[in-house]
Amino acid sequence: MPSRLDCPQWGAFQMSESQIQDLQIKQAFLERHIEEQDRVIYGLQTELEKLRAEVRKLAERADSQSGSNNEMPADEKPPHY
What we know:
Helix content: 55-70%
Shape: rod-shaped
Radius of gyration: 31 Å
């Protein structure tokens, strides 16, 4: 039995049960897809936060080591030359 939809923009139109079922299947697929994307984005956000913290630690370590006497003067050539 077709369903009748009244829409002010398009007027009245009818959809068959199979068309309605197709739309319901597509909606269910899209909802599942969105949930999967949300999980992936959450995982990426967590990984990004960890990487940022690690970069911060490495930058702090580099800053603390830059003040030591192990630095090579700017005009001195590296040992492999």
